[in-house]
Structures are given as C-alpha cells and as structure tokens.
Amino acid sequence: MRELAERFIGKDVYINLLDGRADGVIKEVTDNGIVLENKNGVQVVNLDYVVKLREYPYNKKGKRSTIIDM
Question: How far apart are CA 39 and CA 27, in angstroms?
Fold first, then answer.
C-alpha cells in the first residue's frame, strides 16, 4: 500500500478507512502512515486502516465534486 500511496503525494485525496474517512493533500508517506494536510490542520492516518484511496474529482469550475460512496 505504501508504494501506491506514494503515487498520490502532493494530490488532494479522499481516503476510506475501516471506521471512517479522511481527506486532504498527501504531504508524506512513511512505512506505516500517511501525513495529510487540510483546512483543519495536519492528520496522520495509519496505512493498516486504509481501505480505499482516490484522488478527489473536480468539476469544470475547479471545485471539488461530491463523492457518493456506497
């Protein structure tokens, strides 16, 4: 998972976790975690709990599109 997460460094991402979600720009990927930065500050996410990692989609006006996960 680390190698895959490193492909998203510097990109705005949406992360599904086992018990929730996180979003922000990936600043760093370590052996067992991801450092995210968003408007609320800095978050660290454990890679063991990541279920899905995707780049945030943007609409034609450059704003984030709504993500509907089922």
Answer: 14
- Which pLDDT tens digit goes with each residue over 9-39? 999 999 999 999 999 999 999 999 999 999 9
- The DSSP-derived string for 3-66 is HHHHTTTTSEEEEEETTEEEEEEEEEE-SSEEEEEETTEEEEEEGGGEEEEEEPPB-TTSPBPP
pTM listed for this prediction? 0.81
User: How many other C-beta atoms can be found within 10 angstroms of the C-beta atom of residue 34?
Assistant: 26
Number of domains into which the chain is organized? 1
Domain region containing 22: 2-55
- Decide if 8 is inside a domain: yes
Structure tokens at 10: 């510097």
